[in-house]
Design a protein that fits this description.
Layout lengths: L13 E3 L7 E3 L1 E8 L5 H14 L2 E5 L7 E6 L5 E7 L2 E6 L5 H14 L5 E8 L3
Antiparallel strand pairs: 1-2, 3-7, 3-8, 4-5, 5-6, 6-7
Length: about 130
């Protein structure tokens, strides 16, 4: 038996394109990664930035938001997902084509960034409309 968290994806978001307002997602799955010691957004955001910069990621951040948020593509697994830092957690947001492998690899890199930290993984599932 293993203590490794599961990154299984029981529900995927539905993508909608409302007229004139970009893209919206309904429902889906989010993984909330919480370190065993309290950290602020200002402390966690540079850790995520360093992981993304080390690759194998292609990513872009969203400026003008009240929290750090990146759209990420793992070039090895071809998985695309969003990463947000909020309320002392790192959150992985599943997109319609995201698979578990890319999420697992990001989590493994996050654990490797500071081996003295333990991370709790909570999965939230929203069935949508």
């Amino acid at each position: 038996m293993t203590d490794e968290p599961s990154f299984s994806i029981p529900a995927r978001p539905t993508r909608r394109f409302p007229h004139g307002s970009g893209v919206e997602y309904e429902g889906g799955t989010e993984f909330e990664l919480t370190p065993d010691r309290q950290h602020t957004e200002a402390e966690l955001a540079p850790v995520v930035t360093d992981i993304l910069a080390d690759g194998p990621y292609r990513y872009g951040d969203f400026h003008d938001l009240p929290m750090p948020l990146w759209l990420v593509r793992d070039e090895d697994t071809a998985d695309v997902f969003r990463v947000a830092v909020r309320d002392g957690t790192v959150r992985l947001h599943v997109l319609p084509e995201t698979e578990s492998a890319g999420l697992r690899r990001f989590y493994d890199r996050l654990r490797g960034a500071d081996p003295s930290l333990s991370w709790r993984v909570d999965r939230r599932v929203d069935g949508g409309a």
